[in-house]
Amino acid sequence: MALLEELKDLGVDVDGGLNRLNGNEALFVKLLGTFVRTMESYSVSLDFDGSDSEEVASVTEKAHAIKGAAGNLSITPIYEAYTQIVDLLRAGDIEPAKEEIEKILPVQKNIIDCIKANM
Question: By the number of CB atoms within 10 A of the CB, which of 69, 73, 96, 99 ranks highest?
Fold first, then answer.
């Protein structure tokens, strides 16, 4: 399947994701669609400054949801980036967290675009 090969090229651990699902490619592809919807619902942007604790809590919650969804499907680049982002946000390191968000956004876009193009 072209989608799975393209995702491998983007750094996704497709074999690991399939292994979690007992090799069920159809389920994996279905869950990739769910992942796209999760990303759209919980998008994290750079438009926060860290001065509002509720805002930081909201961004942290969104980042944690993305981390979990990516981890469940072995979408490694997103999982690893959001693991770091969540840790930084929880530590109050807002600027480094924003730098990591800025780095992952284009990678994230490529992965999401790949999934959407092959669904």
Answer: 73
The pLDDT of residue 28 is 97
Contact, 20 vs 74, CB < 8 A? yes
Q: What would the 3-class secondary structure string for 81-102 be? A: HHHHHHHHHHCCCHHHHHHHHH
Q: How many CA atoms lie within 13 A of 5 on its CB side?
A: 2
| Sign of the dihedral through C-alpha 26, 17, 72, 118 | negative
Domain with 60, as residue range(s), is: 2-117
Domain count across the chain: 1
> Residues 103, 67: contact at Cβ < 8 Å?
no
Q: Tell me, what CATH number does 86's domain have?
A: 1.20.120
